[in-house]
Amino acid sequence: MRLLDKMGETMSFIRELIRKTFRGIVDHLPDLPAVQLLFLRNFGHFINMKAPQTFNEKINWRKIYQRDPRFPVFADKIAVKDEIARIAGEQYVIPTLWTGESPKDIPFDELPPPYVIKVNHSAGKNIFIRDRKEIAKEEIYASLDYQLSFSHADFFREWGYRNIPHRILIEKMLEMPDGSVPEDYKFFVYNGRAHFIQVSFRPEGKIFLSYYDREWNRLPAQLGHYPECETVEKPKNLDRMIQVAEKIGKDFDFIRVDLYQIGDAIYFGETTFYPNGGVVPFTPDSFDKDLGAPWIINRRL
Predict the structure, then answer these.
(1) Rg from Cα positions in the chain
(2) Nearest in space to 301 (alpha carbons), one of 243, 253, 233
(3) pLDDT (0 to 100) of residue 4
(4) What are the structural domains of the chain?
(5) pTM higher than 0.85 for the full model?
């Protein structure tokens, strides 16, 4: 057993060394070879940048060639709220409780729980505060310091994040009547039409995903290693959510619009132009082509 443990430790050390070496090489490359190398590692081949076909290929093409000045505004979780209020209506915007640049400026004594602490330029590490007893300031400071230092533009070469000033956003927490976190409906909108919907929910912090078409037919697809969730009941406000998503995405060749439904109310979560960084494979592979097919890329930007 000790020999097996030793071998396991050695293999873990080697894998981590390879990962750090690879990352160190990528970090010093210009955008195009860095994007191609990251794609090669995850998909086993390079991208044909002249004629990208799959969804992930087109995301990576966008990283290099699309320079739409609206990207930084819609990718900024603070700045985008004014755009959503203007385009769709203020009723869809989650109330903001506080914004700032330093974690130590957060007025914890004044903020009414429940609320969510996040950064405006990234995702995936939101801090949920349901009660003041849950406030562990030093842990929150450490998490936010790391998140504020992270750059999607540098790590994934996502140009749209390059000029976003890194800030902290605290919003009212959305809760279902039973206190659970609402399901997250992610609409894939191509030239103003929603074709696909990804549903995700997080029981006890674990992410489950499933995919549907706009008529709410379940699609046999999986993203990376995320487990599929059970069949989700068609949301009663699906048609209205599609209308909202399409209104927000009408002027982009592709954008993902994330919405929540609580009772009869619909709330905007975020928009993204580079879902999963364009580096997470789908199962089956053909679904990557299905997602990419409606995306007629705008080469004039």
Answers:
(1) 20
(2) 253
(3) 60
(4) 1-44 (no CATH), 47-90+177-301 (3.30.470), 95-173 (no CATH)
(5) yes
